[in-house]
Design brief:
Elements (H helix, E strand, L loop, with lengths): L1 E6 L5 E7 L9 E2 L10 E4 L2 E4 L3 H9 L6 H33 L4
Antiparallel strand pairs: 1-2, 1-3, 4-5
Length: 105
């Protein structure tokens, strides 16, 4: 098996494809490896050409990393702790109010 690189009708890279060692390379593929890194490669004139604009590249590079599952859980836990604390405070205030308004008989 060997890997080739498939592109669409506009010659924009789609995905890697495995073919048999003796199979001919399909017309919509090339065995020319993609340069690394690559963002928007296009197969043009027998070579891969990077077509990403500077603005698009800056947007990708400046995009914050997604939070890990652990970070999300920690944030949710902090919010829940705050809610529990506020509920306890509210309950204590309510009980204080009740106890001060009830007159012993």
């Amino acid at each position: 098996m060997k890997q080739v690189y498939k592109f669409d009708e506009n010659r924009i890279y789609i995905e890697p494809v495995l073919i048999g060692d003796d199979d001919p390379i399909p017309l919509d593929c090339t065995d020319l490896e993609l340069p690394q890194p690559n963002y928007k490669p296009v197969f043009k004139d027998g070579a891969w050409v990077e077509t990403i604009t500077e603005e698009e590249l800056e947007e990708i590079q400046n995009k914050p990393e997604p939070k890990s599952e652990l970070e999300v859980v920690k944030e949710e836990n902090a919010v829940l702790k705050q809610q529990v604390m506020q509920t306890n405070i509210d309950m204590q205030e309510f009980m204080d109010f009740i106890l001060t308004t009830i007159q012993p008989q």
